[in-house]
């Protein structure tokens, strides 16, 4: 799997956006709400993707 540095940077930016969204959603609805769990799962997927990208580059 070949991933450019630009792709990795975009993925990292997306992670930060979703992380911010999670804080907002959890503050509004609570940490155990359905909405918070859905955003948290989205963040988990992005973090797993980023980890794979970082490992494949070394």
Largest beta sheet, briefly? none
What would the CATH topology be?
A: MYOD Basic-Helix-Loop-Helix Domain, subunit B
Total of domains:
1
Structural class: mainly alpha
Query: What overall geometry do the principal axes of the alpha carbons give?
Result: elongated
Beta-strand percent range: under 5%
CATH architecture label: Irregular
At the first level of CATH, the class is Few Secondary Structures
GO biological process, one term: regulation of sporulation
Organism: Salinibacillus kushneri
InterPro entries: HLH_DNA-bd_sf, Spo0E-like, Spo0E-like_phosphatase, Spo0E-like_sf
Protein name: Spo0E like sporulation regulatory protein
Could you explain how this protein is built, in words?
This protein has 58 residues and is mostly helical. It has one domain: MYOD Basic-Helix-Loop-Helix Domain, subunit B (Irregular), CATH 4.10.280. It is built from 2 helices and no strands. The protein has helices at residues 5-29, 34-56. Helix 1 (5-29) packs antiparallel against helix 2 (34-56). The longest helix is centred in the first third of the chain and has 25 residues, at 5-29. The chain is elongated. The mean pLDDT is 92.
SSE map:
Blueprint: H1 5-29, H2 34-56
Helix pairs in contact: 1-2
């Amino acid at each position: 799997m070949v991933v450019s540095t630009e792709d990795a940077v975009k993925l990292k930016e997306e992670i930060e956006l979703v992380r911010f969204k999670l804080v907002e959603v959890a503050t509004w609805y609570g940490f155990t709400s359905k909405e918070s769990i859905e955003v948290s799962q989205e963040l988990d997927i992005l973090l797993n993707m980023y980890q794979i990208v970082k490992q494949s580059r070394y």
